[in-house]
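input
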Amino acid sequence: MLAERGQRKPLRSNYKLRYWILLSDACRDWEARILKAIAAHYPTNAIPNETAASEASYSAALSSYANPRSALKTKDLIGYPAKDHVRAAYWLFAA
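output
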């Protein structure tokens, strides 16, 4: 039903998430590093940008983190639920 409306199908496991990130053309390497860092904290509350950047080996203050993070948001892979916080999109883990 989701696919009929043009929405993405949910992934059912972290294994599938890793497979999709690593083998898909949807994410570049730097985007995948950030998404993996953010997804590792799911389903907890949103994490601070500093935490996500640090775990992906970036600095939150630099555009080398902000630009790929913005690309992930555009692709609906992450969200910004609060100021200076990020969270993986729920559909990545939906059953």
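quick obs: The domain at 3-92 is CATH 1.10.10.10 (Arc Repressor Mutant, subunit A).
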